[in-house]
Amino acid sequence: MRNLAVFKAIIFDLDGTLVDTLADLAGAMNWALGQLGEDTHSLDACRKMIGNGIVMFAKRALAPEKQHLRSGLLELMKTRYGQHCFAKSSVYPGVNELIVKLGQMGIRLAVATNKEHDDAVKIVEHFFAQGTFEIISGVRQNGPVKPDPAFAEAIMAKMALASDDFVVIGDSDVDIATAKSAQMLSVGVTWGFRSREDLAAAGADIIIDKPEEIFDLLT
Question: How many other C-beta atoms lie within 10 A of the C-beta of residue 107?
Fold first, then answer.
């Protein structure tokens, strides 16, 4: 594997990378769909809908002829998710140990996610110790979504580092595209919402199957 010892900071995706939030996201969306009398979706179907932000999740969850229901669906889903976002979510095995070790190694950490910003902060602060991540960046009203390079570039500016100092770690093509758009190295993880084949097709520089494989890249 490529040696990443020269890198100073890591930008992590959240859903599907640090925390398995699939059941709670799908549960909230299916509850909202049910309230509107619309068809619900399996976990596997929801897995493929997630990654481009909640607005796109809602769009994909509705049939083409039902898109006029999207704003109402979003409001219902947001309310439900805010009330139940910790019900079934959990940190992926090995991730806590990875994060602690990276901190001990002096590597600076950030989160960049297409989850709405307030929800992102809520999830990260629930599952990880305060101060673990120097920056938590989610989607704000009318703000950009990944893979818009503005996400990564804002983190780069706040940390006063260059793009060559960063690695982007995520589970989807969106994360790989984010890294490419900001001229950063990408590491795709297979334990999340997308497959190894998806990550390879997206052009991930490196693909790993377990969190501890990051240590092999850093030593």
Answer: 17
